[in-house]
């Protein structure tokens, strides 16, 4: 599998072992939960972030998620780290003598779209739990909760 790979759900995955629902319903549910992440490849390639920008985006996403997930002192610490990274990114761009407001807006827009995708994905996982769609049980479900899968 690689770039420009097409995934055919008709022949690829047997869902009977994963769901209490019939195979077609399970296939549609799991397909909408997992494979939509492929939609982020082209925008990320268009952005073509360098190493510093990638680290900034990953940290923005991670600190935002951790702060919202755990609240309290974790939120405060996450916000402080995010501020430090923002200042470092400002210094990085300043040393390159570029006007970076548009670039920063594009990076943050991408981070927001990934964050919104994961929040939407979590809602679908929660619906699957409520309606008891999946029959897979995990020994440590908190690991998957925090990974939103």
Automatic annotation (TrEMBL):
SUPFAM superfamilies: Nuclear receptor ligand-binding domain. InterPro entries: C.elegans_Orphan_NR, NHR-like_dom_sf, Nucl_hrmn_rcpt_lig-bd. It comes from the Eukaryota. Keywords: Receptor, Transcription, Transcription regulation. Residues 1-147 form the NR LBD domain. This is NR LBD domain-containing protein. Gene3D superfamilies: Retinoid X Receptor (1.10.565.10). SMART domains: HOLI. Signal peptide: none annotated.
């Amino acid at each position: 599998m690689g770039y420009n790979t097409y995934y055919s759900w008709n022949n690829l995955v047997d869902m009977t072992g994963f769901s209490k629902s019939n195979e077609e319903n399970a296939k549609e549910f799991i397909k909408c939960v997992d494979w939509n992440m492929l939609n982020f490849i082209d925008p990320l390639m268009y952005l073509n972030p360098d190493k510093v920008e990638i680290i900034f985006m990953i940290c923005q996403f991670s600190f935002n998620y951790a702060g919202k997930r755990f609240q309290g002192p974790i939120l405060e610490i996450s916000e402080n780290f995010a501020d430090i990274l923002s200042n470092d990114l400002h210094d990085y761009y300043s040393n390159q003598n570029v006007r970076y407001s548009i670039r920063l807006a594009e990076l943050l827009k991408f981070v927001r779209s990934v964050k919104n995708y994961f929040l939407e994905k979590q809602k679908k996982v929660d619906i699957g739990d409520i309606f008891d769609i999946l029959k897979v049980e995990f020994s440590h479900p908190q690991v998957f909760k925090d990974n939103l899968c």
